[in-house]
Amino acid sequence: MSVIKVHDKQFQPYIGAVELQQRIKEMAEQINKDLAGERPLFIAILNGSFMFAADMFKHLTIEAEISFIKLASYKGTKSTGNVVQAIGLDEDLFGRTVVILEDIVDTGKTMSQFLPQLEHQQPKKLIVASLLTKPEAMVHPIQIDYLGFSVPDKFLLGYGLDYDGLGRNLPEIYQLVESEK
Ligand SMILES: O=P(O)(O)OC[C@H]1O[C@H](OP(=O)(O)OP(=O)(O)O)[C@H](O)[C@@H]1O
Ligand code: HPA
């Protein structure tokens, strides 16, 4: 792994593919233990989570369902600010154990707007599994039940995460080089 250029920016290797896969396997093993018998419904948030969701799901040995949704952001009223709306969420969540799969919880804004909408449907449990989070960037505190890596507040790329549409296909995670933050 070496420094790469995407669009106009340089990115340096940060988390290798082997380390990523090992951590995701550990997260899945913990979920296998904790949620056995609950037949959880995993909801993966597109686009960024597609690789994490696929790799996580392969390691689940319990009965589980998965659904993929996209969050569309639109301008709400003055009091609500921007509002996120789930596209493609057809399942009834009432009484279900629901696990949200995110690639990253950064400022927490997306989850802080989305989780209350899901709570309305009265799931039995609402659980968040995120591969990454940036504690220093978090302005809307979100409880992450299963976390892969806690990372500094620097822009990341790869393994589903994009910079202006590119880089999602990289099997490892890169960090924007220091001088460019
Ligand atoms: O905690 P936050 O600051 O709200 O950031 C986290 C969100 O940002 C990313 O999605 P993005 O909106 O970039 O869409 P994408 O997954 O399609 O790239 C990521 O997948 C999260 O959903
Ligand atoms: O660090 C990041 N990289 C790419 N997309 C993101 N969305 C939130 N944080 C990030």
From TrEMBL:
Pathway: Purine metabolism; IMP biosynthesis via salvage pathway; IMP from hypoxanthine: step 1/1. Residues 21-163 form the Phosphoribosyltransferase domain. Its main location: cytoplasm. It comes from the Bacteria. InterPro entries: HGPRT, Hxn_phspho_trans, PRTase-like, PRTase_dom. Pfam families: Pribosyltran. One of its GO terms (molecular function) is glycosyltransferase activity. SUPFAM superfamilies: PRTase-like (SSF53271). CDD domains: PRTases_typeI. Its EC number is 2.4.2.8. Keywords: Cytoplasm, Glycosyltransferase, Magnesium, Metal-binding, Nucleotide-binding, Purine salvage, Transferase. It catalyses: GMP + diphosphate = guanine + 5-phospho-alpha-D-ribose 1-diphosphate; IMP + diphosphate = hypoxanthine + 5-phospho-alpha-D-ribose 1-diphosphate. It is found in: Cytoplasm. Gene3D superfamilies: 3.40.50.2020. Its cofactor is Mg(2+). Belongs to the purine/pyrimidine phosphoribosyltransferase family. This is Hypoxanthine phosphoribosyltransferase. It comes from Chitinophaga hostae. The lineage of its organism: Bacteria, Pseudomonadati, Bacteroidota, Chitinophagia, Chitinophagales. The gene is hpt.
